[in-house]
Amino acid sequence: MKTYRWVILGVIACLVITVVSYLWATSLMASLYAYRSPLAAQPPKAGQPAGPPLSKLVVAILVDGLRNDTAADSKAMPSLNNLRSRGASTTVHSVAPSYSAPAWSVLATGAWQDISDGPAMNPTAVKDYRYWSQDNIFTSVSNAGRRTAVAANQNFKNLVPPGTFAASLFTEDETQVGDQQIADAAVQFIKSGKYELVVVHLVQLDHAAHYEGGTLDPRWDEATLRADGLIGQIAGALDLTQDTVMVFSDHGQIDAGGHGGQDAIVLVQPFVMAGAGVKPGAYAGIGQVDIAPTTTVLLGSALPAISQGRPLTEMLELSPGQLAAVRQATASQQEGLYQAYAAAMKVPAAKVIPPADADPAGTYQAAMQEIKDNRLNSERVVRSLLVLPLVVLPPFLLIRYRNRSLLWVLLAAAVYLAAFYILYAVLNGGTFTLSSVLSASNLIQTTAVYSALAFLAAWLVILLGLRLFARPRLQAVHYHLVMTFTLIYIIALPALWSLAYNGALVGWTLPDVGSMFAGFIFTLQLVFVPIAGLLMMAVTALAAGWKKERKPA
């Protein structure tokens, strides 16, 4: 009777784990999509311009999905590398989540994803987009009495606040046809002489990476050449003795085509700037947040109030007086941001004294990071203490199985992990990052299938290794449950680590994307493994006892 009770409790526990894991996984993703910056309700106030404009017109060309190595290839992108030889160039470093809409928000506001109040993920529907609530290059230039224009993909229209651009062209076409329309519109904006900032968004490279075989496919090379030709077309309409052109990307691509995660190749992008106000040369790497404040300095408008970056003064032709004015304006803007962030975190703002002879942004950002780290670390200690019993207790419960059966159970768990990895990473080519996620439904379906197949492989190990077919039915079911819950425990460890490190849901800041995704994909397995355990338990019960052990003569 006691064994029957354990079986019933095991069935109930499997069902509970499945339901809890499902609710946790769906709630986690919902909270990520719903994330808002701590400064969403109280945006910092814009300051004063850093000085007179250095350029009559700035054209910012965003080449969606352009990899840094592709941009550096003079054969693949001769027009871009011609600009590189005439201007300033460097490598841009970004952070995850490395999706388009979050990166556009970083590029426009100069603030990282957890502060910018842009989407943390690419919205799944147009209705889920929202206009930038924070100061950005469009509002900054408009507030300075200058006119802006934008030629871009349709999704840009759902982010840029209405009234901050005087002219626009938005297209839903993501192929070369749409890009040509965008480039033609950009040339018209330039030639009209009516605008001081023109933002151009070319998207066919990202489309080729996602839908035409990835970056190793010849169609990627063809799209690269076409995009480069459009860069040349747009730059050719400029007078670079008085105008400035910037070319940069929002993210890179993994070879298979994809981004969103913390993969090294997607977190570096190119940056080329040429024309008026630019000091030519190759420079040390910069942050993605540095592009927005540099744009506003070129145009003589205020730095975006939310900006965490620094104007790239080393790349600009500035007199000593102009450099001092830029540093003073940066210090004032950073002080306002720091004070607003400290207030949002409900902590006193310490006195920050930036070096007199260096850019002040780094000092203020270190102070903001300290506030963030202090809160995160205190929360992580509490969560770790709550999670610790779930990590420590199960191994003690397995002590009673310190015999041959435990070795087979552990081998079965190892076979499950190996089988899942081979199916997911080797055969399917998936990475354990957001970059290889095609869609939520695809991730759920593949995880369900691979979890079931991997569980089947683990089940065969204990079926044959422990000869369950020759054991009494209850004993066989008992061993099956031990294997199932051992496997559940091992799978749960990355999820528990993410729980301790990031929290159950996304709250006041964005999680560490790498550990969050690892925890998430194992949480998904916790939805399906208990179900597979219950189904195969029935098979175990049917298989058990069909072949009796021979008794000795």
Question: What attributes does this structure have?
Answer:
single chain, 553 residues, Alkaline Phosphatase, subunit A, 2 domains, nine-stranded mixed β-sheet, 54% helix
Describe the structure.
With 553 residues, this protein is of the alpha/beta class. It folds into two domains: 2-36 and 398-543, no CATH class; 57-319, Alkaline Phosphatase, subunit A (3-Layer(aba) Sandwich). Helices cover 54% and strands 9% of the residues. It is built from 17 helices and nine strands. It has helices at 2-33, 68-71, 78-86, 100-109, 113-116, 137-143, 154-157, 176-192, 204-211, 218-236, 291-299, 320-345, 361-397, 404-427, 440-465, 473-502, 513-543; strands at 57-63, 88-93, 148-153, 167-171, 197-202, 243-248, 268-275, 281-282, 286-287. Strands 1, 2, 3, 4, 5, 6, 7, 8 and 9 form a nine-stranded mixed beta sheet that branches. β3, α7 (154-157) and β4 form a beta-alpha-beta unit. It starts with a helix and ends in a 10-residue tail after the last helix. The relative contact order is 0.14. The model is unreliable at 549-553 (pLDDT under 50).
